Amino acid sequence: MLDLNTETYNQVEVDVVTDQATLKPRQENASSMIRYVTVSPKGKRAMFEARGDIFSVPAEHGVVRNLTRTSGVAERYPSWSPDGKYVACWSGSGGDAFPDYFRKAGLGPLIGTRTWGGLIGITGVPGLIDGGMITVPTFRMYNPDGTWFKEGHGVDPDIEVLENPTLLAKGVDTQLDKAIEVLLNELETNPPVKPERPPYEDRSGK
Hints:
Structural class: alpha+beta
Strand content: 15-25%
Radius of gyration: 24 Å
Order of helices and strands: EEEEEEEEHEEHH
């Protein structure tokens, strides 16, 4: 707040009391929010995004499947693999958080390209009366050491492998192939240790 007498700014704490009804778990009718529709290579199923989740539906009769079930994370742009066996989609938030946590846990190298750098979250946004919606940034992620997540930069890979759309259309995934190569080399260098089974316990109560 600006003090007109001294022309200085003072911070004012504002506490808004709410029951946070929009944050409570609930079911939403997403039929009016369908977009990014794509048909499987054999035409047996279609896939689309609605309200941040990816759905798969049969061409005629069958089960509608929610493939992601990621409330609070935006899944977008679903696509089929050339043989129709696999599904890929673009993921916001979780696509940054997962590799960041993966690295911090020391689980292995990150292979691919730098993530997009978007972890400012969106919650509690009410829908509009015409069925539309808006998004308002409401919170941001920070690290256990007290530093902010690199918003706008993302997570750098340990091994950079660029996507090749031409090869991908032919069923060749350069990033996946590199990951398999690295893991096979790691297994050869550091083979898993099979633990020895201990002798049977005497649980006779003697």
